[in-house]
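Changelog-linked ticket: magnesium ion example.
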Amino acid sequence: MDSIKAKVIYINGPVVKAENAESFKMREMVQIGRKKLIGEIISIEKDIATIQVYEETSGLEWGEEVVSTDKPLCVKLGPGIIGNIFDGIERPLDRLYETGTAFIPEGIGLITIDKEKLWDVEITVKAGDMLLPGSTYATVKESSLIVHKLMVPPAIKGKAVFVEKSGKYNIEHTVVKLEGGNDVYELKLYQEWPIRDPRPVSRRKPIQTPLITGQRVIDTFFPLAKGGTAAIPGGFGTGKTITQHQLAKWSDADIIVYVGCGERGNEITEVLEDFPKLIDPRSGKSLMERTVLIANTSNMPVAAREASIYTGITIAEYYRDMGYNIAIMADSTSRWAEALREISGRLEEMPAEEGYPAYLPSRLAQFYERASDVETLSGENGSVTIIGAVSPAGGDFSEPVTQNTKRVVSSFLALDKSLAYARHYPAINWLNSYSGYIADLSDWYEENVAKDMLELRAKMLRILQEENKLMEIVKLVGEDILPDDQRLILEISRVIKIGYLQQNAYHKDDANVSPQKQYRMLSVINKLYERALDCIKNGVPISHVKKDDLFYKITTMKYNVPEDRLKLLDAMIEEIDEYYDSLKCKYGKGECKL
Amino acid sequence: MKIKYLKLDKIDGPLIMLSGVKHATYDEIVDIEVAGQKPKKGRVVQIDRDKVIIQVFESTTGISLTNSSVAFSGKPMQIPLSKDILGRVFNGIGEPIDGAGFYAENKYEIGGRPINPVGRKYPRNYIQTGISSIDGLTTLIRGQKLPIFSGDGLPHNQLAAQIVKQAKIAEADAGNSNTENFAIVFAAMGIKHDEAEYFKKQFELSGVSSRVVMYVNLADEPIVERITTPRCALTAAEYLAFEHDMHILVIMTNMTSYCEALREISSAREEVPSRKGYPGYLYSDLASLYERAGMIKNAKGSITQIPILTMPNDDIAHPVPDLTGFITEGQIILSRELFQKNINPPINILPSLSRLMKDGIGEGYTREDHPDVANQVFSAYSHVKDVRALAQVIGEDDISEIDRKYMEFGRQFEQKLLNQGFDTNRNIEQTLNLMWELLTVLPKEELNRLNPELIQKYYKG
Ligand SMILES: Nc1ncnc2c1ncn2[C@@H]1O[C@H](COP(=O)(O)OP(=O)(O)O)[C@@H](O)[C@H]1O
Ligand SMILES: [Mg+2]
């Protein structure tokens, strides 16, 4: 034991300094004072270390001891993560709750995943096997959906010299011993990993598969990609959280890591109450069976907010390495950036834009760079998709966090205040949102949805863009003076906006829509447009072309066609044909059926 | 025996600095004696070895480097609480100011620990306020934090008083009368004397005075206490809600003054400012107040917060409303335009929002048509705004027939639904029926947010 201990000399909120600290390492985790608060070394100068503390420092004194843990801030990776909820440094919040209070005390120490719980462990190697980094030595059925593969940690390889029988063990039990070089490694049911280091992979692959979200405006117009990145910026009340929740519920990832970063407590509680009851449409199992929650709500310690994002992404990468597709949502990355700013301010660092530290852009880039579609060390395919909400101050996208995020993400789903005010949800603005993945995903859409899916998409976007131009005129002179083909653009845009882009997160048949249904709905609208346009070209006035109840029916088809009755959409196409055939006939232009 | 420190190094605004301190703990409360003045309190806000910075409650006026002594208590700030606080008035640091003393055995730290999201209960029961624009379109839920965004000179106080008077907050199904298990906690930060009097009077008129606890820091009182005022109030609210299972309505006004006090102190400490000079931690600080609303699993009570703030220059992008909106569960926005048109309460429904309403309305809560009819009214009224803009340009005579109907809808909506005045109390049935009545101004085909069955049942056009 060291006789000289580091001692606290300075306290200012989450920032603490200690002297006699020359033996500490950068980014090392330490325990501070009688309450054993957890902190991380963020700078060292001579014998003085600066520490960011992940708990309230209220009650801390000058002279209290700072103890080294001799390792960087790590998370424990093993069974017990899925279906669970953790704070920003992976402490299980449900276990804290079981201690008898609804409030979070400080000084709870370093608890993580459950050490006592016995898991059914299936050993998959035998003595004498040569194991490489990333190879699986055992499996555990972690939830009804997830088989947890226990993998040899990245830097380790060797020959199995001891192999436990399959059976029930807790995570501390050594199940395999490897001999490599002069070392013997004991493999338990978990490994540890420093949260700020990306986990290694065999190689990164190009983007080729969409992350299907069940949200029409996203899947059809601004798709996300497995292994890709997306940002959802928007002022308060524009729908960032609901969109993130929708993605967490309906996207076709194997595992969801949801990071509630500096946002509302009730939003986390809502997930905790709702997800166990919601059924994943693909597996038929409860959504909680594939979900991990990380929660640092806005009133929890700010330094742990900074860490929560890394804890989340490290967990995501770990499951990716087993060959799963993970989607991680961070709501909101702006709170993480503000946590950086707050700590930087207390360190009296030189601020760059709007008080944010100069390293904000590089930190953001490093984080989004951890999204990836990869071949894992053991040769499997896995991916991590990052979807970050951004909360620009005053809803103004020119602020530093939005701008620097925009530079590094490929899908940009811009939420719009005026759409939200009109209760057009999701309030994703179709004119200034974009997805950089259209070209990468075109093969997938052709093979899995329809040959002309992307063509239809482009056509509908053109109609919407045209409408936007026309509205400039309408605002000045009204709609009546436009020629009928242009008025049709306005009418069809209304159908697209209300009947297609708007999607009600709380409606049973509308909350989640398959790509097939999306395509067929789009086909109905296209049919309506083509047949109506044809009539107008043949001199039929718009007042007859726009048949109110037909337009009403198509605008509301989203509520009336469940996934298992898509045939109803074919019937609608027939109805459109019938109506316009007879209309044309009336005007003496087309063939008349009896 | 407590050590007393007799010499200060520096006095700067609300802060004093002293050195040679052996055992200060971060965030603890100190007692300061000043020759010829009544004792003051302060709080440790920074420790640098033996040098300590203390933020002084009340004010530093009259303190010199040598005329005072400082004693450290070793504890963070606490206030005494018992059920006897009901009907009483305290200052911003929890001392009674209504002429009587106050003693309670148990003391509570005012900082408030964060509620574990696992320990929360998601709020789902709506509160009928009797105000149509709120009940129908931005429904208040028990346990919600729903602020009023107002402007100087707008009637936010009347609106708050109307809510206090009309709201059915208590548990109707508990069988007990409506007054047994509810109370109001009122936190006044930097408001004027007559505003505070207005509220006192309104509480009397509503017959709830004996169920109100007030923590008051008026405009001319020390700004450091403005920081502790809402914390004392919320600690009292938590005590009543979670130890006595009461339903608490917390009114906090004015949050803008609170934030300005925070800015003033931050600037005295020479901290790096972010937007408009407010400290970078304004968001976290506001969250530490607003997030104390809600319900927890082990208690039957609830804390519903109605913070009131005035938007400087009516600017919703100003940091105070902006950061508030990012934390609270919606906002009720007052409009100067409606107020000038004499429409009261002048609630601008389009930017207003109740985030919790979706889970507390509809079948089993209010009425099955509520979500859709609200949605339809929002969408129709937002179209009214476009039509009005057009009519301004080309004249009302030249707009299309359907747009003329929207104009009419807009007029009726503002006159019949919004303009109910501060004394009318409507139940939820009346409000919903009124919404349908307004929609009959529009033809059926325009009602694409409503499903045909609902139209059949309620549309009488
Ligand atoms: N897809 C949607 N369907 C229905 N309502 C929505 C949808 N998106 C947002 N909303 C409404 O908007 C409100 C605010 O959305 P939220 O996601 O909480 O905003 P933000 O996180 O951007 O502040 C929600 O409470 C809900 O009423
Ligand atoms: Mg949100």
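Closing comment: Example verified and attached. The pocket of magnesium ion (ligand 2) is lined by residues A 240-241, 263, 331 (CB under 6 Å). Chain B has three domains: 4-75, 79-358, 370-458.
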